[in-house]
């Protein structure tokens, strides 16, 4: 049994990891976050795992309790971040502080106290693919677009394209962790999620988040479907993503926790290369799935093209394509994703409809001033 300090453990990924830890293992989750909203259902003291989960409401930017919590745990998992693209170009300072500066003490405390660290990086660290710079006829070779942990370069746009503030900050954090490993023997594992999606991801604007907030694409499209509005395709929705069901992803993290001898010293891509679609195709699949869930005809739901500047503001840029190379994770942990995209969208949209449709109906029926 391990005591696991989960920083940012009250977020989307953290909430699913907490569920797995309390229900299927003997480990203890010591959750650190500014909010417990997404794990409140696990914190009731009458639940059978009550002695194996505790919540510490604190901001890691400025709280001396952090070192004590890391010191008294066997393993630290760092999930804390600002990680919604709408923030990268509009709040670049907060993005850089959150993804680089605030992780420095976490890494330092782990290194000084000889504690193992599992850190959440991102697939965005690779930036744009080499293929995106080549003429169409050269792009077919996988070496120009499949992303490998130990080979692919990190290709970011110019400084004025502040979209890359997140990827760049995450990259510095990965480099700092790797330097602590190389010089001081830090036991580390770095996780690179590729668009993990599922229930509890982000927020629905105006219901459990600010009405002018812009979450990641799953929540943006869910919000439009719930409100009967067209789904907005940024620059036509031509960018491609591979989507991984959160439950499959959590199985990979659990293997890393339980197999330090196979996970320490590695950076792992964690994604589902079989679930690749363009954002436009994602919208079409979500419309189909939501029609099934809500009973409304798919013909009543539509998409609309919007420019990146209108949607995100100045300084936005996009990753064209992200396909994970799966060699390391298959070889080291024998993990493979299981859930196809249509199945994971069905489950997720059932959750969105169940959780939000009444609140949205109430909001829409209010007389506007
Ligand atoms: P999330 O926003 O749901 O979770 C992050 C959590 O960190 C939030 O609960 C937030 O309150 C907390 N947090 C942020 N700053 C904090 C601070 N100063 N003190 C205390 N708590 C703080 O995001 P998520 O999707 O669960 O992502 C978790 C990690 O995985 C992040 O590092 C993110 O960059 C990385 N990641 C996720 C994905 C994905 O597909 N979901 C993709 C790439 C990378
Ligand atoms: N996107 C979109 N409409 C939206 C929200 C996002 O077309 O309402 C696009 C966005 O431009 C990007 C992709 O969807 O190409 C994925 O965006 P997300 O915010 O999920 O994060 P990313 O994968 O870029 O980190």
TrEMBL record:
It comes from the Eukaryota. Residues 4-271 form the NAD-dependent epimerase/dehydratase domain. Pfam families: Epimerase. PANTHER family: BIFUNCTIONAL POLYMYXIN RESISTANCE PROTEIN ARNA, UDP-GLUCURONATE DECARBOXYLASE-RELATED. This is UDP-D-apiose/UDP-D-xylose synthase 2-like.
């Amino acid at each position: 049994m391990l005591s696991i300090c989960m920083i940012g453990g009250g977020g989307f990924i953290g909430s699913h990891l907490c569920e797995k830890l309390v229900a299927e293992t003997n480990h203890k989750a010591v959750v650190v976050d500014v909010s417990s909203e997404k794990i409140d259902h696990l914190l009731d003291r009458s639940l059978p795992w009550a002695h194996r989960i505790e919540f510490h409401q604190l901001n890691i930017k400025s709280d001396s309790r952090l070192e004590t919590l890391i010191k008294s745990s066997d393993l630290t998992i760092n999930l804390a971040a600002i990680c919604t693209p709408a923030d990268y170009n509009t709040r670049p300072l907060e993005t850089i502080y959150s993804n680089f500066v605030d992780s420095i003490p976490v890494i330092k405390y782990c290194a000084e106290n000889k504690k193992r660290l599992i850190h959440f990086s991102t697939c965005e660290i690779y930036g744009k693919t080499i293929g995106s710079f080549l003429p169409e006829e050269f792009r077919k070779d996988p070496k120009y677009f499949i992303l490998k942990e130990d080979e692919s370069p990190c290709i970011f746009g110019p400084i004025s394209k502040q979209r890359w503030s997140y990827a760049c900050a995450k990259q510095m954090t990965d480099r700092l962790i790797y330097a602590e490993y190389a010089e001081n023997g830090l036991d580390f594992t770095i996780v690179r999620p590729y668009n993990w999606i599922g229930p509890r991801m982000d927020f629905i604007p105006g219901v459990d988040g600010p009405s002018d907030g812009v979450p990641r694409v799953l929540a943006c499209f869910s919000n439009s479907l719930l409100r009967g509005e067209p789904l907005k395709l940024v620059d036509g929705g031509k960018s491609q993503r591979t989507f991984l069901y959160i439950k499959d992803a959590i199985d990979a993290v659990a293997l890393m926790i339980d197999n330090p001898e196979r996970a320490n010293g590695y950076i792992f891509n964690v994604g589902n290369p079989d679930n690749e679609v363009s954002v436009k195709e994602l919208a079409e699949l979500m419309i189909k799935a939501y029609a099934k869930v809500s009973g409304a005809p798919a013909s009543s739901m539509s998409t609309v093209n919007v420019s990146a500047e209108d949607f995100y503001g100045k300084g936005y840029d996009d990753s064209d394509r992200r396909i994970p190379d799966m060699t390391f994770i298959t070889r080291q942990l024998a993990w493979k994703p299981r859930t196809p995209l249509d199945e994971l969208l069905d489950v997720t949209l059932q959750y969105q409809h169940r959780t939000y449709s009444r609140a949205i109906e109430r909001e829409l029926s209010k007389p506007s001033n």
